[in-house]
Design goal:
The protein folds into two domains: about 170 residues; about 200 residues, Pyrimidine nucleoside phosphorylase-like, C-terminal domain (Aldehyde Oxidoreductase, domain 3, Alpha-Beta Complex). It is built from 16 helices and ten strands. The protein has a five-stranded mixed beta sheet, with helices on both faces. The protein is about 65% helix and about 10% strand. About 35% of the residues are buried. It has about 450 residues and is of the alpha+beta class. The two termini are about 50 Å apart.
């Protein structure tokens, strides 16, 4: 249930209707409050304040009508500018970046304040009465409407400044990088259950995996789409209630067809209710999200770099900034404890075999496309080798060092093949030599 609420929150945060609709409802409530206040102490309080006093219904209608018509006009202009910015961003940086603009609270609030002001003025207008012996002028409500109009003007100035900053490549890369670092902090190390306190309770993991190959019951995907989230807590509860072991085959970010294996269960065949409960723990959608899919956030930053390297954009400096940010995130990932596949309950019984994302997965998601499209660019190849050199100093596991060494050899070999200038090949040789010295230093350090 918790993860479903998180998924709903992610959908609402990336929509342009939720915050404006919420602010419109609040504006409606504010209009009711101020009108009630006007009906009790409005005229006396307006004289005391001395800021505004509209003595005639015609004057109040004119003020509120002017504010309302201005707000709905400006709201339309702001919406049009937002669509233009989204279109330009999609062309310049790729469609994967649009989700970051859709989640921009500043743009959502700007649309909300204009919509709320329009709704407020419209609802107050209907209460003004100018019939003889039944005159009602909401002095306080008109004052609040003017205050909202002034606030909207300040928000309009903020919007122009905010949009001009948000489309700059440095700010886009920094924003995606911050989300990437937050995603790493949230997902690594992953905690579902706990490791057993007593080593003798640990089963032979290889035997368990072999049993899953020939004796497990498969749970099929109920609908097609991208797996966005896994309600791991619910899966763990079901495994304990039914006294079974659940193995996850899919992980967030994968596209699954209907009927494709989603998970497997041992030691017995689950009944229909248990199958549906397990299936309900997997949340599907039409797109990948960042909530549990760290690899996708790496791909977003990589996509910006690849778009910058295209002949139509030809902006290698943006690509270099993306490589630097990806290296920072990978270094943080190397400093985190890798999540275990095997999750146990408090009694030391194996309950869940997860399918966690590995460092190799995110490393290839980060750099494969950049290496492919930038193999003939000296600056890109040099920066990739420099980042790998920095990652060598962060890595401790032998498998990580071997991955980095193989990748450095691949970059060096491809760059020498595609670089046409002998001077460029010599420069890449020098950078590669620095990388090899870093590997040699780590080997000597590990031996000592």
């Amino acid at each position: 249930m918790k993860n479903r609420l998180i998924a709903l929150q992610d959908q609402l945060s990336s929509s342009y209707w939720f915050i404006p609709a919420t602010m419109a409802v609040l504006a409606a409530g504010l209009s009711i409050l101020t009108i009630k206040l006007d009906e009790t102490v409005g005229r006396e309080l307006a004289w005391v304040i001395g800021l505004i006093y509209v003595d005639s219904p015609e004057g109040a209608r004119a003020v509120l009508s002017t504010v309302a018509s201005s707000m709905i006009t400006v709201a339309g202009v702001v919406f049009s500018l937002t669509m233009v910015v989204l279109s330009l961003t999609s062309q310049q940086y790729g469609p994967l970046v649009l989700t970051h603009f859709m989640r921009d609270r500043g743009n959502q609030f700007v649309l909300g304040i204009f919509t709320a002001t329009f709704i407020y003025c419209l609802l107050v207008l209907r209460t003004i009465r100018g019939v003889e012996n039944s005159i009602f002028v909401p002095h306080i409500s008109v004052l609040v409407g003017l205050g909202l109009a002034i606030a909207s003007l300040a928000v309009l100035i903020y919007f122009i400044h905010h949009v001009s900053k948000s489309i700059q490549s440095t700010n886009i890369i920094a924003r995606i990088s911050d989300e990437l670092l937050d995603a790493i902090d949230d997902r690594f190390p992953a905690k579902i259950g706990s490791e057993p306190d007593r080593p003798m309770t640990v089963p032979n993991h290889q035997d368990v995996l072999q049993r899953f190959e020939y004796a497990a019951s498969a749970i099929q995907t109920p609908v097609g789409g991208y797996l966005q989230m896994v309600d791991d807590e619910r899966l763990f509860e079901v495994a304990q209630e039914q006294d079974v072991i659940v193995q996850l085959i899919a992980r967030p970010g994968q596209f699954l067809h209907k009927g494709q294996p989603l998970a497997r269960v041992l030691p017995r065949q689950p009944n229909g209710d248990t199958r549906r409960t397990i299936q309900d723990a997997f949340i599907f959608g039409s797109r990948r999200t960042r909530t549990q899919d760290v690899e996708f956030v790496f791909m977003q930053l990589s996509a910006v770099a690849v778009r910058a390297l295209s002949p139509a954009i030809n902006d290698p400096y943006t690509a270099l900034m993306c490589i630097d940010r990806l290296g920072e995130a990978l270094c943080r990932l190397l400093n985190r404890e890798p999540p275990s596949m095997y999750r146990y309950d408090d009694e030391g019984r194996l309950r869940l075999i997860a399918n966690p994302v590995t460092f190799a997965d995110v490393f290839h998601a980060a750099f494969d496309s950049i290496r492919h499209y930038g193999h003939s660019d000296l600056n890109v190849d040099s920066r990739l080798l420099s980042v790998i050199t920095a990652l060598v100093n962060c890595a401790d596991a032998e498998e990580h060092l071997q991955l980095l060494q193989r990748y450095a050899e691949l970059i060096h070999r491809e760059s020498r093949e595609y670089l046409s200038s002998e001077a460029d090949r010599q420069q890449i040789d020098d950078v590669y030599a620095t990388t090899l010295r870093a590997f040699q230093f780590r080997q000597e350090e590990r031996i000592a």
